[in-house]
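Dear Dr. H.,

I hope your travels went smoothly. While you were away I took the liberty of generating a structure for the chain from your last submission, since the lab meeting agenda had it listed for discussion. I wanted you to have the full record in hand beforehand rather than looking at slides cold. The sequence, exactly as received, is reproduced here:
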Amino acid sequence: MIRAYKFLMRPTTGQGIALREMLRDHCSLYNGALQERRDAWRHVSKTSLTYGQQSAQLKEIRAFDPERQGRWSFSSQQATLRRLDKAFTAFFRRVKSGDTPGYPRFRGAMWFDTVDFPKDGDGCRWNATPHDPVTRVRFQGVGHVKVNQHRPVAGKVKTVSVKREGKRWYVVLTVEQELPEPMPATGSAVGIDMGIASFLTTSNGEHVANPRHGRKAASRIETAQRSLSRCKRGSKRRRKAVAKMATVHRKVRRQRLDHAHKTALGLVREHDFIAHEDLKIRNMSATPTPKPAPDKPGSFRPNGAAAKAGLNRSINDAGWGVFLAILNAKAESAGREVIAVDPRNTSRRCPECGHTAKENRLTQEKFHCTACGHTAHADMVGALNVLRAGLVRREAQPA
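The corresponding predicted structure, in token form, is as follows:
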């Protein structure tokens, strides 16, 4: 089992400069390799370069520019080229499937914020000074950097990454662990219905409030955005405004993650089996398609884009995708079972008689079956139907 650890680093002033130079030089390598691929396709009879061909040139690049490229780890530079190769692989896959391709783009100085080291001990060393009471990680060209290790690392470290977030530096470890002992069985099964009014509702009738961290921070985000828009590009004042805006967004993201972790942990501790809706969040938050007006060329009919934009903001603010990813990870560690079911008609089907109709759901909260008269909270009805569908799917799965 693979797990990730993320720790805050405390670099000195000199180490911070070296870390920024490492990001700059890896970004330059990435952009240079991307330009080479573009030129090969355009000017050399549509030739596609591969990762192997570009990786074979690293020795010459390092010898030609020893101060900017030769000082860093060879393996980390290979990882940067491999990242570009993955971007092109994904691009060609989208072209083949008919999706929006999204050609790989050049990275700006502030867009390239991660350097990967594929193997601990090759250009980097986690806990490089075990005799020192302070945990340190060593990077080639940077030195031994202090790490604020807030919890022990269990297992064998496989890869190490350096990540910049605003003015802070983090080290991210991927660790190979054995499967932990499962939590004691509770004998409980639950279905959850994701929503906007309530973050989620369980089949037991419990409602988890939607914290709406993004909406609460909207005024601060707008103020930071207005301040940023008035700054001249390239100025010191603009750099400060960018850092301030990033700080506001970082706080919202961390609040959202904290809420997702605590909610998922509570569900995993209390239930052996958890069923949830298989939500297509990207489709749910898509922009409405424009509708041309047939009688007025060049104009469009109303399509509810303004109202849909507000709903999209609420969906993104809830962070369903992040929560479900965390829930699955915690369930795997605890030996719990999580199943995703088809969400269609889960809030329109009566849990008593099975009658399904659009008219059963009167409002956002009220459910009233037009066949048998059953009345309940609409989200709880959805959670009950999700639980039943999950149990049916579990029984149907081959052993």
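Two observations you may find useful: The chain has two domains: 2-176, 189-214+242-396. The first helix runs from residue 13 to 43.

With kind regards,
E. W.
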